[in-house]
Design brief:
heterodimer; A: mainly alpha; two-stranded antiparallel ribbon; 2 strands; B: alpha/beta
């Protein structure tokens, strides 16, 4: 029996090469992606730890002193701590406000991303599996949705629904589910015709089991890629809406609100109010996108060396 | 011996935009317990569609339009889906051609095997795991515990096909349909796989339909051979009879085109022409346009005749030896 020990299996059994491990080692081959992932990790860490590492809670009006307004970076606040990034028009310490703003921006982006992914995935799988008229109707709705710019859809919805985190998440979900649905349906159509699906049917597995247990895991790779890119998109979309004044309220500023607040002071030389939140947004979105690019390169079998 | 499967006048047609493709057009055969039937034919002759029809896995635009499939005495042609689902993988199992494609690449072997058991039986996971391990051991896989933890890409082609065979035998089915299971493997492994399959059918009394285009493979394996051409079985009989004294000109041609030592240096026989376009089948005998023995009388459908206990669909049985 010459075939019983294949070259691949001859490797020491202690280190089983799972698809996940291979994926991780390939991901870190790119230096840019590694740096981006570190930056992203740092940003997430700062956002999560914000209440413990900031001198001021910008949502607590008792801690915000209007007399501290528009102080340049490095000034000392009335309460005694140093405002390393300066303060905005209402006296909020920008460093604190940015970290709290990141919390909101990231959670809005991730929450809307996950919900849109779940909905889009279910609808896309349904379309691919049902086929026929159901698929046609679903995919035409997707086409219709994608023919509008996401920002426009979100803007209209927020205008109708009003302000608030929940409403903005809802608007972002509505604006983005179609991307996921289209991605999943495309991959699922390919996977559905592969032989392992036929083999699974021949094992007498139920339809639901074949779809969720066999087809879905094979569709995950492109979904993860679209998921990261769309999360970055959601974050900048939220910032856009907030900047335009229809997103989150002034009392709970996200990065978009902070940028908008500083906009009126730009020409008077008080650059820091807009620029620092803007940089925070830039680093967040760019690092997510770089990570997403590398994920795409690693997960796309066609780009494999 | 009792009949496990009786297929009668089975017709599976595909209703495409270009017309009706009669992929299977009146197929009859019987498989008894513990028996291996070789279903032989070239690509597009409808052998695989016959297999899928038995499992009820014909996707639209195809469907079984006529005929009966009796499995253990019960009619399963066009049976309701839940009923078929209970049979699949449980009473009737399938082995596919390409083991690279039939195992789900993202699931471990144990996941896939245990799932196949739990789909039909309500037993503890641990018991299912033990049974999977024993099944792998049975098909000659060393250290099955380790292999169970592996992903399909970590196994070689031969190993994967062994896993597929072990999975097919997991629920002790009454019938296994093997669709060209050795075609994608190299010859030494091919022989091992055939050996394992043969051993298992003997041990378990499982009946088997071995679909192949390779007469040499079934010659040493099958008890009976059915030769299929353009959706119909043209010759049927005991393996030795069919191989030694083929009666249908098509079988004669197939056997003649197998290279062998005593034909060394001679030009190999080839059947002229190609399989007929399934959308425009010749009236009468489908093989007539390629047949050396064809006469104008061949444009009527040949009746099924019985010669020496063999079924034959031909106007001009070849009673004189192989055509080489």
């Amino acid at each position: 029996m010459s075939d019983v020990i294949a070259p691949e299996t001859a490797a020491p059994a202690a280190k089983v090469e799972t698809p996940f491990r291979r994926f991780v080692s390939e991901f870190f081959e790119s230096r840019i992606a590694t740096v981006a992932l570190c930056v992203l990790g740092l940003i997430i860490l700062l956002a999560v730890l914000a209440p413990w590492i900031t001198p001021q809670n910008p949502y607590d009006l008792a801690q915000v002193d209007v007399l501290d307004g528009r102080l340049p970076p490095g000034s000392e606040a009335f309460a005694g701590y140093t405002m390393w990034l300066g303060s905005d028009g209402s006296g909020r310490d920008l460093y604190s406000a940015i970290l709290y703003g990141l919390r909101i921006s990231l959670s809005v982006g991730v929450a809307s991303g996950i919900i849109a992914l779940a909905i889009g995935m279910a609808i896309g799988l349904l379309a691919a599996y049902a086929g026929g008229r159901t698929e046609n109707i679903i995919m035409r709705v997707v086409d219709l949705q994608l023919s509008f710019p996401a920002a426009l859809v979100a803007l209209m919805l927020v205008a109708i629904l009003g302000k608030g985190i929940d409403k903005i998440i809802l608007a972002l979900v509505v604006a983005q589910w179609a991307y996921y649905a289209r991605t999943v349906r495309g991959t699922a159509l390919v996977e559905r015709n592969k032989e392992y699906v036929e083999a699974a049917q021949c094992l007498g597995l139920s339809r639901l089991r074949v779809v969720f247990r066999h087809i879905l895991p094979n569709c995950l790779a492109p979904l993860i890629v679209v998921g990261t890119v769309q999360t970055a998109h959601a974050i900048s979309l939220e910032a856009t809406l907030s900047f335009l004044g229809v997103g989150l309220p002034q009392t709970e500023p996200s990065l978009g609100v902070l940028i908008a607040n500083g906009f009126e002071y730009m020409l008077s030389g008080r650059y820091w109010i807009s620029v620092f939140p803007g940089l925070a947004l830039l680093f967040t979105v760019v690092s997510i996108n770089l990570v997403g690019d590398q994920l795409r390169d690693v997960l796309n079998p066609r780009l494999k060396k | 011996m009792s009949d496990v499967l009786q297929v009668n006048a089975l017709r599976t047609h595909f209703f495409t935009h270009a017309g009706v493709v009669k992929a299977v057009d009146g197929v009859d055969f019987t498989v008894r317990k513990g028996e291996v039937m070789g279903l032989v034919g070239e690509s597009g002759s409808g052998k695989s569609i016959t297999g899928f029809s038995i499992l009820g896995l014909i996707d639209p635009p195809g469907r079984i339009v006529d005929g009966s499939i009796r499995f253990n005495g019960a009619e399963i042609a066009n049976a309701p889906e839940p009923e078929l689902q209970k049979l699949r993988g449980n009473r009737i199992a399938m082995i596919f051609q390409d083991p690279m494609m039939t195992l789900n690449p993202v699931l471990r072997i144990d996941t896939q095997m245990i799932e196949a058991i739990l789909a039909h039986e309500d037993i503890p996971r641990q018991t299912a795991w033990e049974r999977s391990r024993d099944a792998l051991g049975l098909v000659g896989i060393p250290s099955p515990e380790e292999r169970l933890r592996a992903y399909p890409h970590q196994l070689s082609g031969g190993m994967r096909q062994r896993v597929a065979i072990a999975t097919a035998f997991l629920n002790r089915p009454d019938l296994i349909i093997a669709d060209e299971p050795t075609t994608a493997l190299d010859v030494t492994i091919q022989a091992q796989i055939i050996h394992e399959a043969q051993k298992l059918t003997r041990q378990t009394g499982t009946a088997m339909i071995w679909i192949t285009h390779d007469l040499a493979v079934v010659a040493g394996l099958a008890d009976h051979i059915s030769v299929m051409y353009a959706g119909r079985i043209v010759e049927q009989g005991a393996t030795d009879d069919v191989i030694d004294r083929p009666l249908h000109p098509y079988t004669v041609g197939l056997l003649g085109s197998v290279p062998s030592a005593n034909k060394r240096g001679q030009r190999l026989y080839q059947i002229e022409g190609m399989t007929p376009n399934m959308l425009a089948m010749p009236t009468g005998c489908a093989f007539a346009p390629r047949c050396r023995a064809a006469t104008p009388g061949c444009d009527t459908a040949p009746p099924i005749t019985d010669i020496d206990g063999r079924h034959l669909r031909c106007h001009h049985p070849q009673t004189v030896g192989v055509a080489s």
